[in-house]
Amino acid sequence: MTTAAAPLSAARPRVRRTHDELTAELERLRGEIERLRAGEEPAQVGQPLTTGGHLLWVLGESTAEMRLRMAAELLSASRSAHDCFEGSHTQFVRRLRQRNEQLEGRLQHAQREARRMADVSTGAGRGVALSLSWVLADHDTHLMVL
What we know:
mainly alpha
């Protein structure tokens, strides 16, 4: 439930102010409005908001209710974008870990095979096993650790 704003006369007791005081107050208020409206770029109705200046202008021309709703929508969209980014990042890391586990499993299998082949009495089998062991030892240092 919103209440109507009190008239300016009710905001503070009536005090007689001089012309100079009123002029100074007017200049201060104009400066404040200028500061608040700095950076605005007018946008046409139906025109997409392509710059921050357009958004500032629309916010400056909107009611308080509209500004609050737009701010809530911007925050919601920002949270959704952040969650989407984090989700993709988390999913990517999970896939990398799964792939790393698969590669480690394959590597362990190949190392077992190399040891088994090394036990073979023929020279050719032993040579293949030694070569495979050397290659596997080199690749073992390249496994990604997450």
